[in-house]
Design a protein that fits this description.
GO biological process, one term: pyrimidine deoxyribonucleotide catabolic process
Order of helices and strands: EHHHHEHEEHEEH
Radius of gyration: 16 Å
Helix content: 25-40%
CATH architecture of the largest domain: 3-Layer(aba) Sandwich
Pfam families: NT5C
Strand order of the largest sheet: 3-2-1-4-5-6
GO molecular function: 5'-nucleotidase activity
InterPro entries: 5'(3')-deoxyribonucleotidase (IPR010708), HAD-like_sf (IPR036412), HAD_sf (IPR023214)
Number of helices: 7
Number of domains: 2
Strand content: 15-25%
CATH superfamily of the largest domain: HAD superfamily/HAD-like
Structural class: alpha/beta
Largest sheet: 6 strands, parallel
Family: Belongs to the 5'(3')-deoxyribonucleotidase family.
CATH class of the largest domain: Alpha Beta
Distance between the termini: 14 Å
């Protein structure tokens, strides 16, 4: 029997980009942003765009992101019944391409290289499920979209939401019955 497929975003879903972004942004620009202060704000409203881009284009920013709680164990468990693809809209920040591949190799060595998709737009991704923290990606999802909670999407309600990896596993495993 063919396994169902899942496209899983990296930043904000597997990698805790918010924590690192706020830390690097504050250090580089002398600001005092916190997770609470950006809650419910779109990224363009929470951060000055040119300053944000300078942080995201810095060497080792993506390579050193912390892993989301329970992400490794959850993907190992899901991999038993699903084919997993890691899909990241990485080409906007070319410095991130090699860093993301290296990061995945360190933290998710069980994901094969051919299941890593670094792209610009996710509109062409055709999997049974997509887990992402951005509506702009989920709105075009050809399968079942699942929104992973992040500060910038907290007020959005038009997709099934999971708040953490334990909830994501529970939702996906229910589809097997």
């Amino acid at each position: 029997m063919k396994k169902k497929t899942i496209a899983i975003d990296m930043d904000g879903v597997l990698a805790d980009i918010e924590v690192q972004l706020i830390e690097h942004y504050n250090k580089a620009h002398g600001t005092t942003l916190s997770k609470e202060s950006i809650q419910g704000l779109a990224e363009d409203d929470a951060f000055d765009r040119p300053l944000l881009r300078s942080v995201l284009n810095a060497d080792n920013f993506f390579r050193t992101l912390p892993v989301m709680d329970d992400a490794v164990e959850s993907l190992l468990r899901l991999q038993e019944n699903f084919e997993i693809f890691i899909v990241s809209a990485a080409t906007e920040f070319p410095v991130s391409l090699a860093e993301k591949v290296d990061w995945l190799g360190e933290h998710f060595p069980f994901i094969k290289w051919e299941n890593i998709i670094l792209c610009g737009s996710k509109r062409i991704i055709n999997t049974d499920f997509m887990i992402d923290d951005h509506s702009k990606n989920l709105d075009y999802c050809m399968g079942k979209p699942i929104m992973f909670t992040a500060s910038h999407n907290i007020n959005q309600t038009h997709h099934l939401r999971v708040n953490n990896w334990k909830e994501a596993v529970e939702v996906l495993e229910k589809t097997l019955n």
